[in-house]
Amino acid sequence: MTFLQSNQEFISSLFRHNPAIPRLEPSEVTPAREEVFTQRGFSEAGIHPYLVKGLAEAGIERMTAVQVSEAEGKVRMTRVELAPP
Q: For residue 64, what are the β-bridge partners?
């Protein structure tokens, strides 16, 4: 829980003898620019034709890189931009 006390931030804790929380300076981050969608379609993934049809009707025809990895049985680490810079 955070409180402001005489223009300083004070963090309340249920535990004693907490270590000091270091202040970290923001660093410059260069966002990665990657293609989200591949050229691979859902019909190539071996899923039911009704699902492929439903996705196409919703305007979703190409798989993402994560979906391709999953379809191939690969484990993939993914990074996501949580907020615009």
A: 37
Over the stretch 38-78, which tens digit does the pLDDT of each residue have? Answer: 999 998 888 899 999 999 999 999 998 888 888 888 877 77
Instruction: Give the separation between CA 41 and CA 59, rounded to whole angstroms.
Output: 12
Residue 44 lies in a domain: yes
Q: Is the pTM of this model over 0.70?
A: no
Can you read off the two tokens belonging to residue 45?
Answer: 């993934």
Strand pairing of 37-41 and 8-11? unpaired
**Residues 78/66, Cβ–Cβ less than 8 Å:** yes
- 65 located within any domain: yes
CB 11 within 8 A of CB 22: no
